[in-house]
Design brief:
alpha/beta, Chemotaxis Receptor Methyltransferase Cher, domain 1, Rossmann fold, 2 domains, seven-stranded mixed beta sheet, three-stranded antiparallel beta sheet, 12 helices, binds S-adenosylmethionine
């Protein structure tokens, strides 16, 4: 059998299971995912896509992926289309993931930002692809460890994600003791309180929650926030994206950074396209030029004004 024939046979395979699922169905769904979120799924991920969406078909009482594809293409299926995208995102996260970034933020960046905030200046952070809140709360805890009065100053952490379920969890701010084991005991005692009726959990206290604003926003598409941000975290999110989309996102983020601002990425991100606009100052940490000589435009405006107006 020729390699082409073997490949054609493989492409006509169904993924075994409750519902018929063809390569054609997979391709249609993967195209929608890529166009709307930037996330790329190769054919090898067919079983994963099947596993994540079979539950949706069951809940909708559908008999095949073919009917599901047809349904999400209709106006009546718009809400299901959104649910499909949410089901296909990967939300794995944890407190103080990539601890060297938080150490860098605390020791190299926060001292100067704390001085600025105490002088009444606006200081903004952004956690892009924030999942259920562990990353933005880790940023907020790092801020509070240097600037305990941050909630009374003009300091905010914007936390955005495309998935409304994880955003809701972030807003609630309730985490198990196991999840909180990554937070040092002093910070945990000071900034978390009891979670009503959930004895195994603790809830982010009012000052910690006041620092973080959760918003639904797709990194692929227009961005409502104008910046500038002193610090942006975008880790373990764009790794799933198409390379072109990823490069565009890094460039847009660099343009939203204040001069001297910091962008924290994660492994495999290929942040090299940013090198000519600033420099790598630590592992996967990029700092924008302090002079206005890089041709990028960091306009003021803040995120809260646009979004509070809605
Ligand atoms: C693996 S989590 C990473 C969470 C956190 N940044 C961390 O490093 O622990 C990736 C998050 O990115 C979100 N995401 C994926 N595509 C997105 C997009 N196009 N716009 C906004 N968020 C997106 C997912 O919903 C998910 O919560």
């Amino acid at each position: 059998m020729s390699p082409d024939q073997a490949s054609a046979d493989r492409r006509s395979d169904f993924v075994g299971g409750e519902y018929p699922f063809t390569v054609h169905d997979f391709t249609r769904l993967a195209q929608i995912l890529r166009a709307e979120t930037g996330i790329v799924l190769e054919e090898g991920k067919m079983p994963l896509l099947y596993a994540r969406l079979a539950k949706r078909l069951r809940e909708l009482g559908m008999d095949s992926f073919k009917s599901y594809c047809a349904f999400i293409a209709t106006a009546a299926g718009a809400d299901e289309r959104r649910r499909m995208l949410e089901a296909l995102t990967t939300n794995v996260t944890r407190f103080f993931r990539g601890p060297h970034h938080f150490e860098h933020l605390r020791t190299q960046v926060m001292p100067q930002l704390a001085t600025q905030a105490r002088r009444g200046r606006r200081v903004r952070f952004w956690s892009a692809g924030c999942s259920s809140g562990e990353e933005p709360y880790s940023i907020a805890l790092t801020i509070l460890s240097v600037l305990p009065e941050a909630a009374q100053l003009d300091v905010k952490v914007l936390a955005t994600d495309i998935d409304s379920d994880v955003l809701q969890r972030g807003k609630e701010g309730v985490y198990s003791e196991t999840a909180l084991a990554q937070v040092n005991s002093e910070l945990r005692r000071r900034w978390f309180g009891p979670a009503e009726s959930q004895s195994e959990c603790r809830r982010a206290g009012p000052e910690l929650r006041a620092l973080v604003a959760f918003r639904n926003s797709n990194l692929v598409g227009p961005w409502p926030m104008k910046g500038p941000f002193e610090v942006i975290f975008c880790r373990n999110t764009v790794i799933y994206f198409d390379e072109d989309v990823r490069t565009q996102i890094w460039s847009k983020m660099a343009a939203l950074l204040s001069h001297g601002g910091h962008l924290y990425g994660a492994n495999y991100h290929g942040m090299l396209p940013l090198q000519h606009r600033g420099q790598q100052v630590a592992f996967n940490v990029y700092s924008r030029e302090t002079q206005k000589s890089d041709g990028l435009d960091a306009r003021g405006g803040g995120f809260e004004r646009q979004w509070e107006a809605k």
